[in-house]
Amino acid sequence: MIPLLVAAGILLAGNGLQGTLIALRGAAEGFSPTTIGLMGSAYFAGFLIGCLYIPRLLRAVGHIRAFAALAALGAAGALLMVLFVDPVAWIAVRFLSGICFSSLFTTIESWLNSAAANANRARVLAVYRIIDIVAVTGSQYMIPGIGIEGFTAFAVMAMMITLSLVPVSMADRSNPQPPAAFRLDLKEVWRISPLASIGCIAVGLTNSAFRMIGPIYGQSIGLSVSEIATFMSAGIIGGAVMQYPLGALSDRRDRRQVLLFTTIGAMISALALSWFAGEDRNANLLLVFLFGAFAMSLYSLSAAHANDHAKRDEYVQVAAGLLFFYSMGAVTGPLVASFLMQHFGPHALFSYTSAIYAMLILVTLYRMGVRPSVPAGQRGRFAALLRTSPVFMRMARRGRNKRPSGEL
């Protein structure tokens, strides 16, 4: 299991590095913010396709061969970007990267899910979450060290993807049972929880814009490369710090109240960032930390609310549906945010974000008025989720003490 976690760490770091690096390098090459936003949209379109179709590949060739093929494609794509510095080529490569990374994460999480027992599943999930935080934040600081110019940065990306093959090749070669195909019934997921579905769309529209366009925002307000790395890391760390406190609170109260409070916090911090864009470095860091603390928690809170209304056999179906709704928003968010930034300036990124959260607040208030809350004894436990694959939901839910199926 340790080799698999090492491979996950390398991939998570490589994925975190790519998003920031490609945005900054694209800007240095003269690509417009809208073009860079389109690259982000292409990535999430590929990400969704990879999540949906990787189970078929795993059933056809197994985990090890699938991982090797996908890693080779991902590494080749990273090198293609430096060989062909062209917007159309980069958009195509980002689409391919989305397919590769989502498929690689699904493969690793399927493997971990098979290897973990109920006795140690919570520890495996905790370690996985820690690896995610350390890898993604640490990768931001690789950028000032290696620079954004020349061939080096892309060579490092290709090396990281290739090196992830080493621990996987040395891991348990039992080739576990591939995950079942994810049933995608969007109408049913919407019926189970319209609020969670809308919440995940809103999170996709906003958080993807921050992750993909945030580096351009930082550059536009005059931050150095190292300051941009700190700015992005502050938002990620904020989300990591606050997910569990907010989740624990939502286990004790009407979860929609916590979702409403969290959305208000995200909207206010986004408004503050749009008002004080670039005026004070320390204020920017504090505000983006608060923004991350609230905004990055909304997906897990929405998923927990949906699961409160779902039966045991619907958890993975709900996870697949919510990931689809998130990806719908994530395909659109970077493009819209980058277009607004190009025409109205850097403050437009967080003005757009706050407007989306304002609409989510209205939807939450409406849903609280038309549907009663789930009684405390019938609620599930909160789980902080990675938006990497529906398999992560299966990992998080298996072994938890849940209410009996059909109790609703």
Write the layout of secondary structure elements.
Elements: H1 2-28, H2 33-61, H3 63-83, H4 87-115, H5 121-140, H6 142-146, H7 152-163, H8 165-169, H9 186-192, H10 194-220, H11 225-252, H12 255-275, H13 281-295, H14 298-308, H15 315-344, H16 348-370, H17 391-397
Helix pairs in contact: 1-2, 1-4, 1-5, 1-7, 1-10, 2-3, 2-4, 2-10, 2-15, 3-4, 3-7, 4-17, 5-11, 9-10, 9-15, 10-11, 10-14, 10-15, 10-16, 11-12, 11-13, 12-13, 12-14, 12-16, 14-15, 15-16
What does this structure look like?
It is a single chain. The protein is an all-alpha fold and 408 residues long. The chain has a single domain (2-172, 181-397), classed as Growth Hormone, Chain: A. It is 78% helix and 0% strand. The chain is built from 17 helices and no strands. It has helices at 2-28, 33-61, 63-83, 87-115, 121-140, 142-146, 152-163, 165-169, 186-192, 194-220, 225-252, 255-275, 281-295, 298-308, 315-344, 348-370, 391-397. Helix 1 (2-28) runs parallel beside helix 5 and helix 12 runs antiparallel to helix 13. It starts with a helix and ends in an 11-residue tail after the last helix. The model is unreliable at 399-408 (pLDDT under 50).
Please count the helical segments: 17
Q: How helix-rich are the residues, as a percent range? A: over 70%
Q: What ranges have pLDDT less than 50 throughout 5 or more consecutive residues?
A: 399-408
At CATH's second level, what is the architecture?
Up-down Bundle
What's the CATH topology name? Answer: Growth Hormone, Chain: A
Structural class comes to mainly alpha
| Strand fraction | under 5%
**Biggest β-sheet, characterized?**
none
Number of strands: 0
Would you identify the CATH H-level superfamily?
MFS general substrate transporter like domains
Q: What is the CA–CA distance across the termini?
A: 37 Å
Give, in order, the helices and strands: HHHHHHHHHHHHHHHHH
Q: How many discrete structural domains?
A: 1
Radius of gyration: 20 Å
Query: Mean pLDDT score, rounded?
Result: 84
What's the shape? globular
Overall CATH class: Mainly Alpha
GO cellular component, one term: plasma membrane
Organism: Nitratireductor pacificus pht-3B
Domain Major facilitator superfamily (MFS) profile: 192-408
Pfam families: MFS_1 (PF07690)
